[in-house]
Amino acid sequence: MTKPVLRGVLIVAFFALCAFVLVPAFVPRPAFIPGFAPPPDMWPRTVSIVGVVLGALAIFLALRGGQPVEEKVETDGSSVPQMLLRFAGIIAIFVLFFAVVPYVGFLIATMFLTLAMVLMTGERHYRIWIALLSFGGPVLLVLFFHSALGTQFPKGELAKLFGF
Amino acid sequence: MLAEILSALVAVATFQNLLIMAAGIWGGVIVGAIPGMTGTMAVTLALPFTFYMDPVPSILLLVALYKGSTYGGSVSAILIKTPGTASAACTALDGYPLAKQGKAGKALNMALYSSVIGDFLSNLSLIFFAAPLAALALHIGPPEFFMLMLFALTTVAGVSGSSLLLGMVAAALGLLLATVGEDMYGSFRFAFMPDMQAGLSIAPVLIGLFALPELIKLIVMRAAKTEEAAALGAQHVTRAEFMGSLRSILKGSVIGSILGAIPGIGPSSAAFFSYGEAQRSSKNGANFGKGELEGIAASESANNGACGATMIPLLALGVPGDVITGVMLGAFMIQGLTPGPLLFQTNMHEIYMLLIGMLVSSVLLFFAGKITMRMFSKVAHIPQTLLTPLVLLLCIFGIYSIASSTFDVAVLLVMGVVGFGMFLLNIPAAPFLIAFILGPMIEENLRRALAISRGDPAVLLSSPITWVFAALIVFVVSLTIRREITKHKERRVEQ
Amino acid sequence: MKKLLGSIAVAVFAATGPMMAQSYPDQAVTLVVPYGPGGASDLAGRALAETAQPFLEQPVTVMNKPGAGGMNGARFVSEADPDGYTLLLARVGMALSPAVTPDNAVPWDAYTFLGALEATPMILAVRADAPYDTVDDLITAIKDSKGGMTYAASGATAIDGFTTQALLADNGLDPLTAATLVPYKGGGALATALLGGHVDFVAMAAASLMPHIESGDMRALMVFAPSRVESLPDVATAQELGYEKAGQITGWSALYAPKDLPEEVVTKWHEVLGQVATDEKWLDLAARRGSISTIGTVDMTEYAKSQYELFNGLAKDFGYLPE
Q1: Is B491 within 8 Å of A67 when comparing Cβ atoms?
Q2: Rounded (10°) CA dihedral C292, C296, C299, C304
Q3: Are B460 and B147 in contact (CB under 8 A)?
Q4: 3-state secondary structure of C261
């Protein structure tokens, strides 16, 4: 399967899922809306069906040819599995971030997230700047938002345990 | 009347007022330019200070912040592809490519000139046409609103890049995502968890879609270019470039002034509208989205143009058009001034002071923009590997603090991953965002119109305004289809 | 080394100690307004924040958390730590939503009730050029139109929808079909819809309507409040006109906190509210919003309960809930 065909299939699959599974299940139609007024599911259903049609058209055109040339994605020459691994790493860190916020608090979680992101870009120079960014940055931002807007950031169970 | 204007001029032209406006404008530009911080934040932040100020300076401060932040949004849109506000999304489309070509200075200057001109013209329209524009705004009922926004949606064709079909797919995704949350009648749609009942906010979707994929790309592909951006100072907009964009600037200012006067439309939709219009009518149309100065001019003149015009329904009708004017309405009330028709009878002196002050702040915007541009030009020297995580950090904090919501931060990160997925599949992000913002207005007004007409679709073509826009939609759509078919045939011949 | 550890411990204690000590409040208090900025509830919240600050001796920061008919902000506060640093500016919606949509709302009693703040009258209004001078004229027109008349509201089960529906029910009309509801978002949009003539009437919070009534663009037909509004002495209340259901509906604001709030915090706020009640600025700001301060005059726990029961009964009457 070429990329344009795969893309078309993905589009059809997503919008079909919305039109035939998600809309009926998660868009209730309250009985009190008068019959002549369009109900809440009218619009999402219409848009999803249009999406299915567009996706089908994309498959059709991909098979028929004559589509714009796909732009090449620029890389540093890493292999596909390597790049997939990096992408999985990003997802894992994002998930981990939300998992630890309730325990270690917002401040420490964002420090960890920022540091992980910088290191994952492959940056190993500017060590002082990296440290300042990942540790000093969140501290400054917490202080700023707390004093200016009175924002209360999640403190975390662990921090509470130590009496913070 | 002349005597009144003169006395207002004397009253407003104090050193203190100038200082307040300058601080407001500059503060607004800086807040707008920092990723993750929004004009709404700046205005609400300043609100408590206005309790202790005189009525006119306090409103001038808020207006200055609003204008400043609307321009400031373009700075981060151009330099780091992170539109500070949704209204700068189209600015990023041309501004970021220009920055990558080493022409960030040109882009920033063009954004500033068109913002200032749009702002100034919009203030003039506030002074001379407030009453007729407010009356026009009241005529915009659900059917007219629906047609107007449907026409604005045709901008999608202009921002779809190489494939119109994929642009439409992206728009459908945006329309669908915008339906998450509370339905207009009070039930919930796609509320998989309680947090989703409130829907997805624009800020995390916008930033997630535009800025975050850059970071993910950097990590996954590691194709970072470390070239230094050229010094900004030397890059002036030439006379020819300015004259070439002047038509779009003027058109954008008019579009902004008219659309801004209609409550509920706001600067973002005006910017999309203007960008689409410029792209269709410009001889450089084909270059839009690849780094065209005229695109920046169209988008920025319209969003700042709308900014001043949102004061029209606020002052003349007492109706706030968006969140920021909502906050201003609160400020007026606290000061004991009730915006609305009566204000023009009872407080004419204050109104004149306000209008004069707004004109002055347009001029101040020019200088504040120039200074800020220089400050932020250093951003170009920060290596991408540090800059993009910094942007993420700022956005996470900024978005969290809007509503103390971890859910909004989750939306930000998830949209980043979605945006990256769309990039891999060559599905453009801009149509998604435009549809996401216009979608609720289109849907709700369609349903309102049909509720009022008891299900009769003829209501959608019941007034001259709707006829005009229906005709425009038909014209633009058929033009686009014809162009697509020709392009398609040409490509088949080539292959 | 021991010395160093000791000084760190002291520093940590100094930084965290006050929070453990009995000195509420030692930092800014966040007041969550569950609706968007600029509306009647936001103005009430900001007025309270402004006037309570000197008595509380700590800043009160207002945070808007709109969405889901106010339930988004309400849920945030009901799930927050009961430390007194996150409070809710409650509105009539906090009693209405759980009464009408029990599955999707925060229960009416999921809070500590710190006290009532104000009563906000609702007004039934039409355009000044409309041919209706009294409520009876309007009702007759509604009957004649057979469902063709339209009114704007924030949603079917929102308070500004319930006002109209109660009035219809009182006149023996079907509350859901006798007039057509057109949903709009926010007080400003509702007022504009009437002003532009896109709908025939509204029955909503006074704050967004007063400027237009004063300028002569709109006409007030009736007030939903326990007593007449000072600035509209000639407009009768629903009670006076003998409407049973509509007569019980009115708007209000109150101060809520998460459940199980420490006694010390509750006492502090009773004290602060007592001072706010007679504060000139508070009373002045309330008058400008068109509302009446009710601090200290209502037992909030009881009132919230009675409001919940009222709306629950109406919801069953109107057919939103099974009997």
Answers
A1: yes
A2: 40
A3: yes
A4: coil
Rounded Cα–Cα distance for residues C24 and C31 (Å)? 15
How far is it, in rounded angstroms, from Cα C323 to Cα C321? 6
- From residue B449, give the alpha-carbon distance in Å to each of A32, B140, B294, C189, C201: 18, 12, 36, 15, 16
Hey, what CATH topology would domain C122-248 get?
D-Maltodextrin-Binding Protein; domain 2 (3.40.190)
- Of B58-67, C22-31, C55-64, the one with minimum mean pLDDT is C22-31
Residue C67 Cα to chain centre, angstroms: 14
Q: Can you read off the two tokens belonging to residue B439?
A: 């979608």
Burial class of residue A64 in the structure, from the number of CB atoms within 10 Å of its CB (0-12 exposed, 13-18 middle, 19+ buried): exposed
CB C152 within 8 A of CB C132: no
Min Cα separation C35/chain A (Å): 18
- Nearest 5°: phi and psi at A94? -60, -45
Q: Is A137 on the interface with B (CB under 8 A)?
A: yes
Q: Which of the other chains make 3 or more beta carbon contacts under 8 angstroms with chain B?
A: A, C
Instruction: Please judge whether B198 and C101 are an interchain contact, meaning their C-beta atoms are less than 8 angstroms apart.
Output: no
Taking the C-alpha atoms of residue B458 and residue B463, their distance in angstroms, rounded to an integer, is 10
pLDDT, tens only, C7-24: 444 444 444 444 444 578
Helices C93-100 and C159-170: angle between axes, nearest 10 degrees: 70
Chains with 3 or more CB pairs under 8 A to chain C: A, B
Q: Which residues contact B310 (CB under 8 A, 6 or more apart)?
A: B260, B261, B266, B267, B321, B322, B324, B325
CA distance B285 to B427: 20
Q: Where are the domains of chain A?
A: 3-64, 80-161
Q: Is C143 left (phi over 0), alpha (psi -120 to 50) or beta?
A: alpha
Chain Cα centroid distance, residue C202 = 17
Tokens of B190: 């796609």
Bridge partner residues of C89 (DSSP): C255
Average pLDDT, chain A: 88
Report d(CA B413, CA A94) in Å as an integer: 7
Residues from A in contact with C at Cβ < 8 Å: 30-34, 37, 149-152, 162-164
Query: Looking at beta carbons, which residues of chain A come within 8 Å of B443?
Result: 43
ipTM: 0.92
| pLDDT tens sequence across B147-165 | 999 999 988 888 888 888 9
Give the whole-angstrom CA distance, residue A10 versus residue B427.
Answer: 12
Do the chains contact at A33 and C156, CB–CB below 8 Å?
A: yes
pTM: 0.90
Chain Cα centroid distance, residue B240: 27
- Topology of C2-119+250-317 in CATH? D-Maltodextrin-Binding Protein; domain 2 (3.40.190)
Chain C within 8 Å of B266 (Cβ-Cβ)? no
